[in-house]
Write a structure and sequence with these properties.
Elements (H helix, E strand, L loop, with lengths): L1 E7 L2 E10 L3 E6 L2 E6 L39 E3 L4 E6 L6 E2 L4 E7 L2 E6 L4 E6 L6 E2 L4 E6 L1
Antiparallel strand pairs: 1-2, 2-3, 3-4, 5-12, 6-8, 6-11, 7-10, 8-9, 10-12
Length: 145
């Protein structure tokens, strides 16, 4: 039960809220019970405040997470960049490929993505076929570099 004291026109009043619903409340004022209608209610907002410490980077080096399609990285494996479904394979074992050449197409997140060769070489094996579901990092094509 919430109790409050008021001073109205110099007269002291003691109010106690006995029960409350969405549109009415029962209050006791100076020993007498009253049922009152609630016209407007203001709820106190308790917004949490997030406090974080400043964190310095662990090193001053800039780390590249991915490579450019035309950049030579010397990889002999062409891997799935994200989970998805293989739509088509555009090369066969024995075919020569160049950096940045589209070797397969896959659907991921309702978008068609081109899978490109990360180095020059000759296709050694094709490990998937159209319609295959693949996970991120799964080897799609092996190259002889």
């Amino acid at each position: 039960m919430k109790k409050m004291k008021f001073l109205i026109n110099g007269n002291p009043y003691e109010l106690a809220v006995k029960s409350i619903t969405d549109d009415s409340a029962v209050v006791e004022c100076n020993g007498t019970d009253y049922e009152v209608e609630i016209l407007e209610s203001r709820a106190e907002q308790k917004t949490p405040r997030l406090v974080r410490k400043n964190v310095a980077p662990s090193s001053s080096e800039k780390v590249e997470r991915t490579h450019k399609p035309t950049e030579h990285v010397g990889s002999q494996y062409i891997k799935a960049p994200i989970p998805g479904t293989i739509l088509s394979i555009l090369v066969n074992p024995g075919d020569s490929v160049e950096i940045g050449q589209v070797v397969a197409k896959m659907e991921a997140m309702k978008m068609e993505n081109n899978i490109m060769a990360s180095s020059d070489g000759v296709v050694k094996t094709v490990n998937v076929k159209p319609g295959s579901s693949v996970l991120e990092g799964e080897v799609l094509i092996t190259l002889e570099v």
